[in-house]
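Per reviewer request, we include the raw input and output of the structure prediction for the construct analysed in the revised manuscript.
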Amino acid sequence: MYVGGIAKDVTENMIWKRFQKFGPIEEVKLYFRNDDSGMDDYAIVTFLYKCDNATAIEQGNDDCTPHYTLCYGGRRQFCKVKYADLDNVDEDTAVQGQDKKEEEDDFDALLKKALRNR
């Protein structure tokens, strides 16, 4: 999980304590920029289970301050676990010749279509 907008004085332990209520955490990593703005400082929290990650994103700011930017964030190069395809479409074993409607409903296909129509 991407945790954006962290302060320079935040520690891995502080992030761990805040999000451990959502499930077992494998790792917390902090990334600080060299500028003083603090706008791009962030943490990556790797949960043991992807369902805990989803819950943390949905509820992670509900009863805590400061509020962080919480999302999947596309930061998978920092995580040491295999990337999870959350739309449940296995690209390697997709059935050849599946009907066109089913293929168009695939998240990746819909995203590409939306980006083309911008």
